[in-house]
Amino acid sequence: MSGTSMATPHIAGVAALIKQYNPSWTPSMIASAISTTASTYDNLGEPIMAHGFDLYSLYASAPFGFGAGLVDPSRALHPGLVFSAGYEDYINFLCSLPNIDSAIVKTATGGVCGQLFENPSDLNLPSITITSLTGSQIVHRTVMNVANKAETYLSAVLPPKGVTVDIKPSWFRISPQGTQHLHIMFNVTQALDDFTFGEIVLTGSLNHVVKMPLSIFPISTT
């Protein structure tokens, strides 16, 4: 009923394929590669949002329904950049949530709160969601070059409605296995009563294209 019955084995199979090709990759690196190389267009070149396949089509054709898009296994083997997050990052994410008792986190996970994020949105995922953006907020991300050559990337933004997005640096050159920190500033220009969507696209000089979905709920300009 949820539509995941076939999505789950397909994604598991793609993940196994990527793991076989890149044995040293962690689960978060594999998930990042699948997400950032997905397409929001179908195999006929039509936007996913234009389609509905069954009773839940209204949900499936919305951004929270199709997520990063349709998986492309071939491109996921060579994503160029990945967003990596480990066990301690997830513990610190939980500890950074509002009104969370660190003792409860330890009881539930066995993990101890370490260096907290400035905001839970700083968990290094290949997407950014801000559930209540007031005024402005900076979100941090770190990418790693998993290709075997150095590459120069140029940043582009399709901003969500009611929000401006500024990414620094706007371009960067990254060596193999090197990392690059990104500072992404969101600023509300118009308060809305629901989520609004966009994306950041990092285009590499060696033809890698890395897409990061944005889901923002701008509630106030101040």
UniProtKB/TrEMBL annotation:
GO biological process: proteolysis
Keywords: Hydrolase, Protease, Serine protease, Signal
Pfam families per record: fn3_6 (PF17766), Peptidase_S8 (PF00082)
GO molecular function, one term: serine-type endopeptidase activity
Domain annotation Subtilisin-like protease fibronectin type-III: ranges: 122-216
PROSITE patterns, alphabetized: SUBTILASE, SUBTILASE_SER
Source organism superkingdom: Eukaryota
Domain Peptidase S8/S53: 1-43
Coiled-coil ranges from the UniProt annotation: none
InterPro entries from the UniProt entry: Peptidase_S8/S53_dom, Peptidase_S8/S53_dom_sf, Peptidase_S8_Ser-AS, SBT, Subtilisin-like_FN3
SUPFAM superfamilies, alphabetized: Subtilisin-like (SSF52743)
Family according to the record: Belongs to the peptidase S8 family.
Name of the protein described by the UniProt record: Subtilisin-like protease SBT2.4
Taxonomic lineage from the root: Eukaryota, Viridiplantae, Streptophyta, Embryophyta, Tracheophyta
